[in-house]
BRO1 domain-containing protein
Amino acid sequence: MVNWSLNIGNLHLLQGVDMQLGLAIDSPKATLAVKRRLACEMVKYWHQVQESIPELPVSEGWGKKHLLFVKWKYVEAKSAAYYFHGLILDEGNSEKSHGMAIAALEASEEFLKESKRASAAFHATPPTSRSPTPFGTAKYLFDKIPKEASSKVRINQDLYTPERVIGAPPPLPDFSLALTPEDYDLPPLDPLWNKEDGHQ
C-alpha cells in the first residue's frame, strides 16, 4: 500500500528545506557545513519519498510523471550534497582529502547531468509540461558545479591520475533529520469520483 501520509509530509518538509538551502546559498554568513547539512537532509527526505511509493500505479494518469519528478529531484539533491561535501573535503590539507574532493565533485557533476535527463523525461511525459528556466538552488548548481569540478581538477592536476584519484565518491555524512512529517490522513473519496460521468 502506498504510504501517502509519509509522501505528502515529506514533500512539505522538502519545500521548507529547499527554501532554507536557497537562503543559505544567498547568505554570506552561512557556512559550507550548514549548506552541506541541508543538502544531505534533502537527499534523505527524497529517499524516503522514493521508498514510500514503490507500488504507485504508473500505467495511466499522473503516476509515471510523479515517479519521474521524484527521480529528478532526488538526483538533483544528490548533486547539491556532493557539491558542498566536495568543497568541504577540499579544505583539508592532505592528498587524500583533495582526491576525495575531486571524486565528490565529479559525482556531483554526474548527478547534475542525470537530473537534467530526468527533468527532460518528466516534462516530456504526458501530460506534457514546459521545462522552466532554472532558478533558485537549481540555477546556482547549474552555474557552479561544472566550473567548480573542472577548476578543482586543474588545481589538483598532480593528484588526478588513475592510480591516485579515488574512483568511487566518498559517502555523504549521515545527518539525523531535524524534522519528521506528522501523520496525515487523506479525506474520504467523494462518491462522485466513482461515477463514469460527472453529470450522473
Notes: The chain has five helices and no strands.
